């Protein structure tokens, strides 16, 4: 048994080293390709180098950053033919990474003047990697601001124009930008003639930038982070999520998946906010006009509503509150097999994305039949223990109503007979502490009778 454990551990280490070596070689190949476009007599602008470095680092986060930097410096200082690099990328670069590569590479070309020679070279490079459809889609998309949407490029437009998917407040110099998604990678393109502020950088007009999970976009009075962009891109791909109910109880407003007599409105969050009042003379708009019962209104996230005589409530604050309550996934009828994860990079096709950051990385596969209400779960990957009804499992049959515990803050409730999976989150709304004391083991008292609420 001990020998088997040692062999299994050795196998994992060998596989990990081989994978890291392959990723490092692919990162060097990407650096070579980018360098062939940004190199000007052995030099490149600092901004172009930063964009390329950031892109390669986010595609391969497990590769040593120092190695990436040296590879890029070497590729610019000592340019080499890229034929071998292209062959390697064709074999080893994931399909979902080819779209952001094409977008980022062509944006660099456009910034350098977009000459016919460079455009032809771009087409040759992308075709050598192995996808002419992506090449044509990117040339069409980046060749004009108002290009029609393409199924290969998931995108959402932000701005004050009525043509934008998500509308911003119409202020002086309201930004306009477009975000693209490929797997877990998100790129931002500035469509405004003024710079856009991202992570303290100015993104010039018609330039693209890869968004990191810690980044924020300054969109007028709105600060959008990585998870906000994921939300709107998911709405673009899968449509408006199931509605929630705005509840008023004990002078407090909350959101619930279930309707009750305390519900004052039905709300669905997509590119815009869909609100249906459920009680007469309860809700008013920002202009103090009453919202009519059982009439659905489409409002923008910067707008406000009032519940009774309470303070104005910004709809973006409600959307953020809805993210705290967890998501409900209503699945099509019939026997289903779905993949569930909190890592966008591991999902495709018939799959569900749970809120990232509340548990270790996991990938689950669920199969169930709503007619019988019985399902099965298989843990494909997990960095933490997965519990079903209190027991740690790897593969387990699931009766209807089972609770899959992903962490102490996140769980998934299986309502197979209703074709529903509910994400549940532990959320502390009120905390009262009385007479809290703390004493160090060999020291004096650090906290003495602390009370707060």
Care to describe what's here?
There is one protein chain. This protein is of the alpha+beta class. It has four domains: 15-143, Orthogonal Bundle (TerB-like), CATH 1.10.3680; 155-238, Tumour Suppressor Smad4; 244-324, Tumour Suppressor Smad4; 328-425, Tumour Suppressor Smad4. Helices cover 31% and strands 31% of the residues. It contains nine helices and 30 strands. The protein has helices spanning 2-38, 46-59, 65-77, 83-92, 95-111, 116-129, 132-142, 226-238, 315-324, and strands at residues 154-159, 166-167, 177-182, 185-190, 196-198, 201-203, 208-211, 216-219, 222-225, 244-249, 252-256, 263-269, 273-277, 283-284, 297-299, 304-307, 313-314, 328-330, 336-341, 351-353, 362-369, 374-382, 387-388, 391-392, 395-398, 403-405, 410-415, 420-425, 433-439, 445-452. A six-stranded antiparallel sheet has the order 18-28-27-26-23-24, with no helix packed on it. A five-stranded mixed sheet has the order 2-1-3-4-7, with helices on both faces. Strands 11-10-12-13-15 form a five-stranded antiparallel sheet, covered by helices on one side. Strand 16 and strand 17 form a beta hairpin. Helix 1 packs across helix 4.
Question: What is the percentage of strand-forming residues?
Answer: 25-35%
Q: What's the CATH architecture of the largest domain?
A: Orthogonal Bundle
Secondary structure category: alpha+beta
- Measured between the Cα atoms of the first and last residue, the distance is 53 Å
How much is the average pLDDT?
82
- Unreliable sequence segments: 11-16
Spatial strand sequence of the major β-sheet? 18-28-27-26-23-24
CATH topology of the largest domain: TerB-like
**Relative helix content:** 25-40%
Number of domains: 4
- State the name of the first-level CATH class of the largest domain: Mainly Alpha
